[in-house]
Amino acid sequence: MSDPGPSATTSEPQTCEVCYLEKDARYKCPNCKIAYCSVKCYRGAKHRQCSEQFYKSRLDDHLNEGSEAPGIETFDERMKKYLDGDGEDVKGLDPEEADGELVDSDDEGEDEYLKKVLQDVADEYDVSEDELDRRLLKFNLGGDADALLESLTEEERKAFAGLAQQIHDDEAGLGKSCFRQK
């Protein structure tokens, strides 16, 4: 069946057989061959049964054509094929890539990085008490830690506590992002 289109067989203007108002009925129904002037007349009440039949037959033709074509796959079906090793059937997948090893670029050098961080942390906290006393004496801060704290004013103690917390946070990396920058 063909779509409703212009009539090429008549040379003189025809009156629309649906609305009878237009003298220029340029179209003919492909089903019943009635002359009409517009889509409004083609779909109108007087011609509805024929036009609906035409649309139904076109829809049936379209659906019948689709049944011969392979069915639409869902995402799950495509993934199952891919995981079962049928990668050549999956569109957009290069068969050479399907056999290759999967690469996770985020993990490159992760083991070495973690070993280095662990070693640095262990080295920092592996300092003996004698070494700490030696470093404090170097800055004329040696002696009993409690005596040093007692000699500070309340304001100096708060400032010291804030500084100690800041140093701890910096050394522990609490102020840094856990994500590496590229």
- The CATH class of the largest domain turns out to be Alpha Beta
Question: What is the overall pLDDT average?
Answer: 74
Largest sheet: 3 strands, antiparallel
The helix/strand class is mainly alpha
Q: Report the sheet-strand fraction.
A: under 5%
Q: Looking across the biggest beta sheet, what order are the strands in?
A: 1-2-3
CATH-derived architecture of the largest domain: 2-Layer Sandwich
The CATH topology label of the largest domain is Wheat Germ Agglutinin (Isolectin 2), domain 1
Count up the domains.
Answer: 3
The low-confidence parts are 6-10
- Per DSSP E runs of 2 or more residues, the count of β-strands stands at 3
Shape: rod-shaped
Summed up, the helix count is 8
Instruction: Return the string of H and E elements.
Output: EEEHHHHHHHH
What is the radius of gyration? 43 Å
Q: How many angstroms separate the termini?
A: 62 Å
Helix content: 40-55%
Region (Disordered): 85-109
Protein name: HIT-type domain-containing protein
Keywords: Metal-binding, Zinc, Zinc-finger
InterPro entries: Znf_HIT, ZNHIT2
Secondary-structure blueprint:
Elements: E1 5-6, E2 27-28, E3 35-36, H1 39-42, H2 48-68, H3 75-83, H4 95-99, H5 110-125, H6 129-138, H7 145-150, H8 154-172
Antiparallel strand pairs: 1-2, 2-3
Pfam families: zf-HIT
Domain HIT-type: 16-50
Region (Disordered): 85-109
Describe the structure.
Residues 16-50 form the HIT-type domain. This protein is mainly alpha-helical and 182 residues long. It folds into 3 domains: 5-68, Wheat Germ Agglutinin (Isolectin 2), domain 1; 110-143; 144-177. It has 8 helices and 3 strands. Strands 1-2-3 form a 3-stranded antiparallel beta sheet.
